[in-house]
Amino acid sequence: MIKGVLSVLLLLNLAISTSWAQSGFQLGFGAGTMLLNQENKAALFFSELADFQIEGGVPYFVNFNVDYAFKPHWQLKSGIQWRWRSIKLFEGQSETKTILSVPLILNYRMPVNKKKDLILGFNIGISIDNYIPNTTEKFYTIESQNVLTTIAHKNYIYNGAFLSFNGALRLGLEVEKNFESHGRVGLFVMYNHQRGNTAKTISVVERTVYSSDIPTQIDHVLKETIEFDEDQTGYMIGLNYYFNSFQANKK
Q1: Quick one: which of 54, 56, 57, 76 has its CA closest to 66?
Q2: What is the pTM of this model?
Q3: Which residues, at least 6 apart from 175, have a Cβ–Cβ distance to it below 8 Å?
């Protein structure tokens, strides 16, 4: 199985490197994870019972790269990136939140070790992002002795006014190892500054406490709201594979 996958990649590499590379275009793919800056939990507390909490998981991403080298040390990097993240809600409930991004990055490259064929790249640019809604509104209840808890859960997503897209600033470094006709591999770290107040998970929790003496009589009602910020500002760390070695467009 592994030998078959490697054979397919080798054939793709040979086909792409003989056509796209001559025109300055380079194709590749990558994957990685994110280290987020913001607090990863949001909770409220009721005195009668335990607290409720929303917890965000670690984001992951995959990307397909389309780069264009217009000078020996300069290239434009773009493609499509798909990011996803699991959000844990109450009582074992969870959701997966996704973002589709198109990066537009200016890259400057220079060799740092010609003997080992290592290249250092500096990246600066933006990404055009679209949060993809996957749920509407959910209601569910939890009963415990003389306490009834109702939860109204909904998502707030604001995709910007310009063609329903948001944006992020990106700045980072990439170290690549060139394998000549076998392509190249790059390790990158990219700081992604996401626009604030773009996506939230909002849960309104209402707890009705009934009298212990008269089960139908309401003693008191508590109501609180949890807002969990889903904006993904932090560091992207991942690996890229490119089907060909770096060749600038010399026309």
Answers
A1: 76
A2: 0.79
A3: 112, 118, 119, 120, 121, 186, 187, 188
